[in-house]
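As the next step, I needed to go through one protein, both as residues and as discrete backbone shape codes, included below for the reader:
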Amino acid sequence: MIEDAPDPGLYDPAPQRQRFTWPGGKTVAVWVAPNLEYYEIDPPPHPRRKAWGRPHPDVLGFSHRDHSNRVSHWRMADVMTKHGFPGSVSLSVALCQHHPEVVEDARARGWEFFSHGIYNTRYAYDMSEEQERAIIADSIATVRAATGQTIRGWLAPALTHTPRTLDLIAEHGLDYTCDLYHDDQVMPVQTKSGRLVSIPYSLEVNDHYGFFVYNMSGRDYADTLIRQFERLALEPGSVMCIPLHAYLIGQPHRIGPFEQALRHIAADGRAWIARAGEIVDAWKGMQR
């Protein structure tokens, strides 16, 4: 007989489902997570994962993603602002040095920032505790200096982790993680210290997965966002995240359908359109 594997203990495996409404009597909280990222053209090699599918330096991969920081960020951000969607930015904090104008535009729009590591081409696999602590501390200091904000959230660089990542971000005072994909509601995370919660972030309606994994057209992706919203709006207390990459969603042939999806959600009347920190605060307020 095979011995049962232990539960990893990240969160309650069988929580009580809560049904409640968000501020204003809204049934679903909707937040948009633009990934403002920086990819190195010739990153240091990692033994467990290649940064690029092509040999370094990868001019094609680098320049494709740099479209975000030259053109498509503004195209995406203007559509979001037009329809009343603030951003909660998953930030490669090196962008503060490489493209401060992008970070400043997001700050001026009133967007919230959380860390997505330093570069999206540096992975957490096999990091020592000292290295991981240094990245968290660097993220806090760099974003504070560039924007005046103190980050509250974390999305691991390129979605890579160590077994201690959640404990370390909680210890450093962060109070939400986007690194768990297990629920459609805000949920507490079990850590050694702090009061960390998981806010729903989505791989299923992430534009990267939509276009690179599921091979969707722009219209297919917009329809998926609408269907995701329509179902979650029927489940009070749910959270819908729209994770974006400007070099994908901000392309001229995709921005129109995306705007139609935002217009639909904004006009529906059941969505509380908010920043990630506001959603976490509202949820915590209801737990007292």
Remarks:
- Residues 59-82 form the longest helix (24 residues).
- The longest strand covers residues 28-36.
